[in-house]
Give the backbone structure.
Amino acid sequence: MRVMAPEEMEALIRLLSDDGYEVVGPTRREGAIVYDRLQGLSDLPAGWGDEHGPGHYRLRQRDDQALFGYVVGPHSWKKYLFPPRETLVRVLRREDGGFETQPGEPAPPRRAFIGVRPCELAAIGIQDRVFLEQSVRDRAYGARREGVFLVAVNCAEPGGTCFCTSMGTGPRAGSGFDLGLTEVIGEGTHFLVIEAGSEAGEAMLARMDTREASEAERAAAEQVWLEAPKHMGRTMPGDAREVLARALEHPRWAQTAERCLSCANCTLVCPTCFCAQMEELPDLEGKSSERVRLWDSCFNGEHSYMIGGPHRSTVAARYRQWLTHKLSSWHEQFGSSGCVGCGRCITWCPVGIDITEEVAAIRATGQGKAGGQGT
Amino acid sequence: MSVSAAERQIPEPMAPVPWRILDVRREVADGEVFTWRLRPESGAAPEARPGQFNMLYLFGVGEVAISVSAMDGDGSLVHTIRAVGSVTRTMQGLRAGDVVGVRGPFGSAWPVEAAEGRDLVLAAGGIGLAPLRPVIHAVLARREAFGRVLICYGARSPRDLIFRDELAQWQARADLDVRVTVDRGTADWKGDVGVVTQLIDRGGFDGRNALAMVCGPEVMMRFSALSLHRRGVVPERTFVSMERCMRCALGFCGHCQIGPHFVCRDGPVFPYPVMEPAFRVHEL
């Protein structure tokens, strides 16, 4: 276990940039912590924390200079690996009426992600399974995922809508990163514990100014790992998968639909939601056309478009689709839950619908009407 | 993480391949339903199985999932299309020699081999006859391998019947029991009027030993399955072909999910018990 000064983040960002990485990570913008290009240490949100509640998010100034003293913002790394809009194919019309195809986008940059939370590492792992480990690989996702350098940061103070302990994804990262950081702030001390999780991480660590952790520093880091789970703001019932599978006709869906605006915020901030729309975008001359992939949401009417009308016309059916897919049928499709417990869907829901509360409510009343045989 | 170093060399699975329309055939008087025989510009069509579909693409317009309605084994594939949306209506204006894009074939197939030695019931509603036609072709190629073969076909009106010439040939055969009904008859219509389930209810097959394949609107498939099961066909030997809006056909876009199933990849052909919740639960 090695230790470095917070200022050494400047060196890490510079070394990664020198190696050709586009370095992205947390920065403060428009009252939120978002992910964007990092030029140096000063771009990190030093001294800023955040408050999370259902439909509630506020930045607040901390009384220390913590670099990673926030929980998570509205962005996730999904926006880099599975961007909201991308051209998958460019189709060029030939003189004879036929066509040929070209790749839609230039080769993506190699990126380094700074400040990946353990729940976000788990989310990247889930999208890897969706896009790379099925019968067909998603070429565009794979090209961006290839060679990403991951700098994880373990959580010291999970927030009011966090429930990663319930989902088994945090608050400490086990594997799947190149470098893992733990930020320790005590009376008169502020340092980062750093560990390598891959060969690339080892190589980078060797080029940085670090030293072996002292006994006291080691103990302080372990204290952070021990304390973090106690800050978890929410709990997800462990049998959510089975509860929802039995509850397809539970009255709760219609009740929640009265509050749900079907706005799709939850699916946009979710780090694992992968639904996409395909659009055809011809140029005005009719010489070329782009096949564009855009984020979609099961809350949109268009999502279940069929000739004769959408087959999920009601908000209740759309909310049911989202929740049962995320927490139940995802297991059958991809071998795990689709939820990592990051709490974003709770924080960014404009009416504060709480995924954990919904499951608990269905669970509490699930055995009666929802027995599976329906009405 | 399992990412290959040669990622960028992998062909783009969403890129359509140019195929040429060899001929166009009007199936109904106003041309709302039409059949294309298609062949890749270079090489022969990949092998397709009965029940599978292709994504057909029109430059500058978009892409739609259309099932294969015949495979003649001559390097072409046949698709029967109903002009109902923006892409298919534009397709209606295309002629022999025009180039369209194709990706596929995708999806699961009708279990034709599993029907060998059994009675076979095919129930089709409207354009739902198109994905079943390759099954009929496969059965007629080895007619002796199957027991009694029943084709129950329902359409909105006599003018909506597709594959008319072939239908007449099938009806003329002694070894096929072809029953056709329409929702609304015309003055010169001498056949049945009513829903397709009534054709099933008339029996003429050994339910316990039969295998059934059903394709049509969901309500038609649901009640056809009920009729079949009343006649003794076990749910596990009843197969349905589901329709959902498919954007990618690869299991990525998420649009075609029914419970845990991706219709594009796990379907479109499913054993009835697997799809039973979709018929039972409203808007699943």
